[in-house]
Amino acid sequence: MRALLATSQITYVPGNYAPLFKQLLPLQAHQIKGIILLQNLSPQILIKALGLYAMGARKTGLGFLQNIVRLMLNWDPREVLARQFNVPVFKFESMNSPEAIKLVKDLDIDLVVNMRTRCIYKSPILAAPRLGCINIHHGLLPDYRGTLCDLYALSEGRPAGFSIHHMVEKVDAGVLYKRCEVGHGDKNYQEYLKRSAQIEAQALSEIFSYIEKEGRLPEPLAFNSATPHHYSKTPNHKQIRAMIDQGLIL
Fold first, then answer.
1. What confidence score (pLDDT) does residue 225 get?
2. Domain that holds residue 49
3. Which of 43, 95, 106, 211 is the most buried if burial means most Cβ atoms within 10 Å?
């Protein structure tokens, strides 16, 4: 099985999502043929990080800023880990770019895994790997769709977690392969994100091992939702202050 992992150059996750790579690479480096970093470093993302800090989400804002500064200093813990396991790193503007699609085909990739990018995959990249593309959605599908679903769920006192689903052109659709609850009632969002990254790594490892043994993706899970929630926007200043007033540590 030959997989590519795609994530953002900059994320707000502690360690820039390195906890997932630190756990996954020792288990599955032989199946991972490359890590793609989608380039999103820009003045706007720096302003966003500063804005989070100013709004009171100080741990998230500070962690975001640390990830940005480390990248500006040319130190990325994910690239360090990749070198340790001889996994090449590629950088593109988008997974829909001709260069990304060509890489998938040239490397004869079976599976692309999308992890914390805002890239909307179009049909050419979705069709390029033998088994298609899967996504780690940070909400419990089909109940939670949209953006920052885990944060909204925690603020509402609901179970929070992630889902791994097949990617189709419609966002947050496609059949489910994993649905993992990470927390319920957690107050420290950054600690929740660290724990989630580790559980995500284990869930991905299980999918990779299944594909290696069976030559195909696992059987889809069956879930229905009577009360779906959809979050189309990141929280604004008023919502962030309300979450902090509820006791969330952001």
1. 66
2. 3-245
3. 95
Q: Is residue 149 part of a domain?
A: yes
CATH number at residue 206: 3.40.50.170
> What pLDDT was estimated at residue 32?
98
DSSP string, the chain: --EEEEEESS-SSGGGGHHHHHHHHHHHTTTEEEEEEE----HHHHHHHHHHHHTT-HHHHHHHHHHHHHHHTT--HHHHHHHHTT--EEEES-TTSHHHHHHHHHTT-SEEEEES------HHHHHSSTT-EEEEESS-TTTEEESSHHHHHHHTT--EEEEEEE--SSTT-S-EEEEEEEESS--BHHHHHHHHHHHHHHHHHHHHHHHHHHSSPPPPB----SS-EEE-S---HHHHHHHHHTT-B-
Residue 188 placed within a domain: yes
**Which pLDDT tens digit goes with each residue over 56-98?**
999 999 999 999 999 999 999 999 999 999 999 999 999 999 9
State how many domains the chain has: 1
The answer to whether the beta carbons of residues 33 and 143 sit under 8 Å apart is no
What's the confidence (pLDDT) of residue 226? Answer: 62
Asked if residues 101 and 47 have their Cβ atoms less than 8 Å apart, the reply is: no
pLDDT at 229: 81
The β-bridge relationship of strands 3-8 and 111-115 is parallel
Q: Chain-wide mean pLDDT for the chain?
A: 94
* Inter-CA distances, 85 with 9, 58, 69, Å: 19, 34, 25
- Specify if 250 maps to a domain: no
Beta-carbon count within 10 A of 95 CB: 26
For residue 193 the two structure tokens come to 């994100």
pTM of this structure: 0.94
